[in-house]
Amino acid sequence: MIVKSKEELAVMRQAGRIVAECHELLKERVKPGVTTLELDRLVEEKIRQRGAVPSFKGHHGFAYSICSAPNDVICHGFPDGRPLAEGDVISIDIGAFYQGFHGDSAWTYAVGDVSEPIRRLMHDCHEALFLGIGEAVAGRHVGDIGAGIDRLARARGYGNVRDFSGHGVGRELWEEPSVPHYGLPGKGPLLQNGLVLAIEPMFTLGDWRAFVDSDGWTARTADGSICVQYEHSVAITEDGPQILTVL
């Protein structure tokens, strides 16, 4: 696990802000009729305008600047030319590499009006993200983050995806430790000041199980249920958890 200095965290805040600016842009652009390829181009242009490069493009051969996850897609989906439709829901994961460090954040967007169960799912997964962030305190353990998220998912009847987890982030996009969104309080690696974690719960309206498409990347819910995801990069500091992927 790689602890960052205060100077390194300052750079990571800048990388995180670039990601947040992209998500702010998407709030206005995600609507019926737009394609995820259009959104991908928009995000890449924004990242490069800010003097950064897309973290995902070329990462293990991934060809795009965003991961696109509509409806039953959990994560790692490819943008494509199909227009989004009224009532769809889509999670978009964005990374920006700036002056040697990555910022990483995913957000779920409603496409027009969505059903009430999807709205509740979005609200509750968003709440779970901040519950997990609240556990990112020096002296606690990785298991405390996951346990809190999982309690909320179980209490509200959602599937809590287990096959994909959060992670450390810094000079590398994926660093130790792995941050599952389930676990036992007091278990797992000890958290310490200077760590930066990408916390990213993924909740479904059905079962938590997943499969990966023949493209080798796109992960979907096994039962075809809707999935949403919220993610922030969070620094553990002596002043408590600090979200880096904000404006």
UniProtKB/TrEMBL annotation:
InterPro entries attached to this UniProt entry: Creatinase/aminopeptidase-like, Pept_M24, Pept_M24_MAP, Pept_M24A_MAP1
Name its GO BP terms in alphabetical order. proteolysis
Q: What are its cofactors?
A: Co(2+); Zn(2+); Mn(2+); Fe(2+)
Alphabetical keyword list: Aminopeptidase, Hydrolase, Metal-binding, Protease
The organism's place on the tree of life at top rank: Bacteria
Tell me if Hydrolase is a UniProt keyword of this record: yes
The residues that hold a divalent metal cation 1 are 93, 104, 231
Q: Which GO terms describe its molecular function?
A: initiator methionyl aminopeptidase activity; metal ion binding; metalloaminopeptidase activity
Domain Peptidase M24: where?
11-238
Question: What's the catalysed reaction?
Answer: Release of N-terminal amino acids, preferentially methionine, from peptides and arylamides
- Give the co-factor note: Binds 2 divalent metal cations per subunit. Has a high-affinity and a low affinity metal-binding site. The true nature of the physiological cofactor is under debate. The enzyme is active with cobalt, zinc, manganese or divalent iron ions. Most likely, methionine aminopeptidases function as mononuclear Fe(2+)-metalloproteases under physiological conditions, and the catalytically relevant metal-binding site has been assigned to the histidine-containing high-affinity site.
So where does substrate get bound? 76
Give a yes or no for keyword Lipid biosynthesis in this entry. no
Family affiliation: Belongs to the peptidase M24A family. Methionine aminopeptidase type 1 subfamily.
Record's subunit section: Monomer.
The free-text function statement in the UniProt record for this protein reads: Removes the N-terminal methionine from nascent proteins. The N-terminal methionine is often cleaved when the second residue in the primary sequence is small and uncharged (Met-Ala-, Cys, Gly, Pro, Ser, Thr, or Val). Requires deformylation of the N(alpha)-formylated initiator methionine before it can be hydrolyzed.
What is this protein's name? Methionine aminopeptidase
